[in-house]
Design goal:
Elements (H helix, E strand, L loop, with lengths): L2 E7 L6 H12 L6 E7 L6 H11 L3 E5 L6 H10 L5 E4 L11 H8 L5 E5 L7 H19 L11 E4 H5 L11 H7 L4 E5 L15 H19 L3 H28 L9 H34 L35
Parallel strand pairs: 1-2, 1-4, 2-3, 5-7
Antiparallel strand pairs: 4-6, 5-6
């Protein structure tokens, strides 16, 4: 299979039929083999029945029905696991993403990119409750991750499969896939895509989503920068506390030795010194424990600490057939 479309849906009974027809019309203009993987994330309406009817009439479609609502990230991961395409395209099931943009994303991939992200340049969503929080979140994510995109929240994106197989999705990390891919060495670009106002139902997200984005971003930053060297983070904080504690202790000693002797005023500062040194020791020990956990994680599961983009070897017959003599073992000398 060349292209797999992964479409998570939740209570979209009015939309799935129209979406299927739009997807089929768009993919008919592209000379590739394709499939559409709809993932029902615990719908309580007639979404599954409508999808079953679509499967009966179109062999390009398959449906993955989850036992309950696990969230958009888990639904996307389920779609990836049950797809077979070399290229994966994600889009929402509410008709706000336009399937007519899929050929544009695929053409951009052909230019050598690994990830093509959609940018809802002309977005049709409520200004205060959706667009303002989204703009703030995009600005923060771009600055923290170093991957500058206008629209992290746009689900319409195209990926080469190897980019996603290197990164398993947990929690609500689907919006950070471009950043994860970039840290793995993927080439990323962004293209403007169409965006339509919601026709049916209501949005599954609210203002609280911004809070979740910030918390997920903290996790992402830790995983991206310190997943193989956590002692750098915890050890750095520990050394900072030790530095503050030593400085506070020196001030206390200095006021005791040099006049005026106001040691009574410095008793709280002495407590601060002891508190900082204790915290510093705890952070240093926590960093060592995190190092042990990370090494166990990588070594027990044979997790690599690097990712190879390509391997270049000499052509056949390009090397001498003479064997390379083995280096002399120092232990053999004098025998």
């Amino acid at each position: 299979m060349d292209v797999s479309l992964v479409i998570p849906v939740l209570n979209e009974e009015e939309s799935v039929g129209l979406l299927h027809r739009a997807v089929a019309a768009s993919m008919a203009s592209v000379p590739v083999t394709w499939e559409a993987v709809f993932v029902d994330d615990g719908s309580t309406d007639a979404t599954v029945e409508r999808l079953n009817a679509v499967v009966a009439e179109d062999p390009h479609v398959k449906v993955v029905v989850l036992r309950r609502n696990f969230g958009q990230t888990a639904a996307i991961q389920a779609g990836v696991d049950h797809s077979t395409g070399a290229i994966l395209v994600f889009l929402d099931g509410d008709l706000q993403n336009d399937p007519a943009d899929i050929p544009t994303l695929l053409a951009k991939l052909d230019e050598g990119y690994d990830v093509v992200s959609g940018w809802r340049k002309d977005r049709h969503d409520p200004f205060l409750t959706r667009r303002v929080p989204s703009s703030c979140a995009n600005w923060i994510i771009s600055r923290v991750t170093g991957v500058r995109l206008h629209d992290y929240g746009c689900t319409l994106k195209a990926y080469r499969r190897e980019v996603l197989t290197e990164n398993r999705l947990y929690g609500d990390m689907h919006r950070f896939i471009p950043a994860l891919a970039s840290w793995s060495g993927a080439r990323i670009t962004e293209v403007p895509v169409q965006h339509h106002a919601r026709k049916f139902g209501r949005s599954k997200y609210g203002l609280f989503r911004t809070v979740r984005v910030v918390l997920d971003l903290l996790t992402l930053k830790f995983l991206g920068s310190y997943s193989t060297k956590p002692s750098y983070l915890f050890g750095g904080v520990g050394l900072l506390f030790w530095f503050l504690g030593v400085c506070a202790a020196l001030v206390v000693v200095g006021t005791k030795i040099f006049p005026p002797h106001h040691f009574s005023y410095n008793v709280p500062l002495l407590l601060v010194a002891g508190f900082c040194c204790t915290l510093g020791t705890l952070f240093l020990m926590l960093g060592l424990l995190a190092e042990l956990s990370i090494r166990t994680y990588h070594e027990s599961q044979s997790k690599p600490t690097y990712i190879v983009r390509a391997l270049v070897t000499p052509p056949e017959g390009g090397c001498s057939d003479e064997p390379i003599p083995a280096a002399e073992d120092p232990a053999d000398r004098g025998r």
